[in-house]
Write a structure and sequence with these properties.
L-arginine/glycine Amidinotransferase, Chain A, DDAH-like, hydrolase, Amidinotransferase, 6 helices, 3-stranded mixed β-sheet, alpha/beta
Length: 270
C-alpha cells in the first residue's frame, strides 16, 4: 500500500507571466499568451495541493520576471538547508536573490546562493538518499560537487541530450523514495545505464507522455499530480498503485513549464 506524505511547497503566482524571450525550444514570443488563463491554471494546481492536505506558501511575483512562476528552479531545499539557484540566462538571474531573501525570511537561515550555475529543483531531484542531478543544457556539471558538499548526500550526475527536455524535471519524476518515472530518449547512453541500474522497476514514459511534459509531476508518495493529457503515464501510475491527478497546465507549457516547475518543495531538518 502506498502512503501519501504531507508536503510543504513554495509557489509563485504567475501575475507577470508572459513569453517575451526564448531560452528553451518551447518558448516562442510570437505566440499569444493568455495570462489570466495561466493564473487560473496555477490557482487550480494550488487548490489541488491544498485539497490533498499539503502546505502551500507563496512568494511575491516581481515585475519583469515572467518565469518566476517556475518556483522549482529557485532553489533546492533539503534537511532545512537551501542552495539557491544561480541561473544561466540573464533573463532569470534576478530570481535567485528574490528566492534567497524569501527563504531567509521564512526560517531557512542556512541558505546561500550556489557558486556555480545550478537551476534548483529543475535539475536536482531527491530520490531517497540520492540527489539526482541533471546537466547538459542548464546546470553546470561542476555544480554537482558543490551540491554534494553542501547537502552531504551522494549526487548522481545525469546528462540530458534532447533540448526539448532541458531540465531534469522535464524528463524524470521521483514518485517515492524508490520509484521514478523517466523518458529514456532524454538521457545520454551512460546516464540511461545508471538509471536502469539504480531503478530497475522504473515507470518508462512514452514519447507522447514526454511531449506533454507528463514527467513534470509532483508526487507525495501516493497522489501524483501531472498534466492531464499524459494518458499512458496516468494509466501506468494507476497500475503501480499510485493515484494520478490530472491538471491542465497548457498555458504555462508555452514557456516550457508545468506542474513540477511551479512547485518548490521545502524540506525541513529532521
Amino acid at each position: 500500500m502506498r502512503t501519501a506524505q504531507p508536503r510543504h511547497y513554495l509557489m509563485c503566482r504567475p501575475t507577470h507571466f508572459d513569453v517575451v524571450y526564448s531560452i528553451n525550444p518551447w518558448m516562442d514570443p510570437r505566440k499569444p499568451v493568455d495570462t489570466p488563463l495561466a493564473i487560473a491554471q496555477w490557482e487550480s494546481l494550488r487548490q489541488t495541493y491544498l485539497s490533498l492536505g499539503h502546505t502551500v506558501e507563496t512568494i511575491d511575483p516581481l515585475p519583469g520576471l515572467p518565469d518566476m512562476v517556475f518556483a522549482a528552479n529557485g532553489a533546492t531545499v533539503i534537511d532545512g538547508r537551501a542552495l539557491v539557484a544561480r541561473f544561466r540566462d540573464a533573463e532569470r538571474i534576478a530570481e535567485g536573490p528574490a528566492y534567497l531573501q524569501w527563504l531567509r525570511e521564512h526560517g531557512f537561515a542556512d541558505a546561500r546562493t550556489a557558486s556555480i550555475v545550478n537551476e534548483g529543483e529543475g535539475d536536482y531531484l531527491l530520490a531517497g538518499e540520492w540527489l539526482l542531478a541533471g546537466t547538459g543544457f542548464r546546470s553546470d556539471p561542476r555544480s554537482h560537487a558543490e551540491a554534494q558538499e553542501f547537502f552531504g548526500r551522494p549526487v548522481i550526475g545525469l546528462t540530458l541530450v534532447d533540448p526539448d527536455y532541458y531540465h531534469l524535471d522535464t524528463a524524470l519524476s521521483v514518485l517515492d523514495e524508490k520509484t521514478v518515472a523517466y523518458y529514456p530518449a532524454a538521457f545520454s547512453p551512460g546516464s540511461l545505464a545508471v538509471l536502469q541500474r539504480l531503478f530497475p522497476d522504473a515507470i518508462i514514459a512514452t514519447d507522447a507522455d514526454a511531449s506533454v511534459f507528463g514527467l513534470n509531476a509532483a508526487s507525495d508518495g501516493y497522489n501524483v499530480v501531472l498534466p492531464h493529457n499524459a494518458t499512458h503515464l496516468i494509466e501506468a501510475l494507476r497500475e503501480r498503485g499510485f493515484n494520478p491527478i490530472g491538471a491542465d497546465m497548457s498555458e504555462l507549457l508555452k514557456a516550457g513549464g508545468s506542474v513540477k516547475c511551479c512547485t518548490l518543495e521545502l524540506r525541513s531538518a529532521g
